[in-house]
Amino acid sequence: MTITAGIDVGSTYTKAIIQARDGTILGRAMGPTGFKLQQLARTVYGMALDDASLGEGDISYVIATGAGRHQVDFKDLHVTDLTACARGANFLFPGTRTILDVGGQTMKASRVDEAAKVLSFRLNDKCAAGTGAFLEKTARYMGYRTEEIGALMTTSKGSVPISGVCAVFAESEVINHLSLGTAPADIMQGAIESLTSRSVQLMKRVRAEPEFTLIGGILRFQTMGQLVSEILESDVNIPDTDMVQHVQALGCAILGHRRLEKIRTEADASAPVR
After folding, report:
1. Which of 11, 34, 223, 273 could form a disulfide bond with 105, CB atoms 3.0-4.6 angstroms apart?
2. What is the pTM of this model?
3. How far is CA 231 from CA 21, 129, 139, 195, 228, in A?
4. pLDDT mean values, one per 10 residues, the chain (274 residues)
């Protein structure tokens, strides 16, 4: 059985996927990225192998992506985030034509064709107010852990305006709202609505068309997916909670199988005729 691995060394989390040739996901793992990228990539890779009850010798090809992809010293190949994301989204939702990826430090929108080829894309990486990191920072400032954001949102009775332009101004607004006695849930609702507005604007810049697929850790919380769906007046695809942050790693594993097939085809074509 041919097995590949995909490694996504993101700015906030590093993810790994182990996939069989028939598409079955055999193992997965995730850990905070930190500073020692090479060490962490190998650690998360090892965790995914353990999850699959496999060893490094069982893997035929490894592809890496993400901000730290060049630091993965055991990879066979690396690809861009956009390429990996398109492949992973297409595998999970074949009708995908527009992808929104809300990462810890960046937000990306891309439009793809039926073969998962990227036709156009836009990135928002100039301000943390448009990323998941801002929401996590807002939650921590109010005394909540990241994993508590979802439960906090269920208690919101409204929202207050939060700047979608600058993270520094947005943080000042959070402080001001707290001093006025605004409920933390309503502040978080305002922050998510701000992020949603920025994300939809980014999607429109790539001439978004359905099906829409949303990925990234912030999509673990249903609120953002619901808001995007309402603004676009369309259903949206969101991977299951255990896959929503692994789509790029999955795309790498898929591309690994395609690369192996190409290598085999080229080898067969060059083999002497007997």
Report:
1. 11
2. 0.91
3. 38, 19, 25, 13, 5
4. 96 96 98 91 98 98 96 97 98 98 89 98 71 80 85 88 69 87 93 88 95 92 89 96 95 98 84 64
Q: For residue 25, count other CB atoms closer than 10 A to its CB.
A: 19
**Cis amide bond preceding 233, omega within 30:** no
Regarding whether 210 and 100 lie in a shared domain, the answer is yes
- Shared domain for 268 and 204, answered yes or no, is no
* φ/ψ of residue 7, rounded to 5: -120, 125
- Residue carrying the six token digits 């059985």: 1
In sequence order, the 6+-apart residues with CB closer than 8 A to the CB of 90 are 96, 112, 115, 116
- Shared domain check, 100 and 63: no
92-141 pLDDT, tens per residue?
999 999 999 998 788 999 999 999 999 999 998 556 556 777 788 888 88
- C-alpha 91/C-alpha 68 separation (Å) is 24
CATH for 265? 3.30.420.40
In a domain, 117, yes or no: yes
Q: Is residue 87 domain-resident?
A: no
Neighbours of 231 (CB within 10 A): 16
Name, in order, each residue with C-beta under 8 angstroms of 41's C-beta and a sequence gap of 6 or more: 7, 9, 14, 64, 68, 71, 72, 74
Residue in 191, 251, 198, 250 with CA at minimum distance from that of residue 223: 191
Q: Which residues contact 106 (CB under 8 A, 6 or more apart)?
A: 11, 123, 124, 125, 131
Q: Distance between CA 231 and CA 144 in Å, rounded? A: 28
Domains held by the chain: number: 2
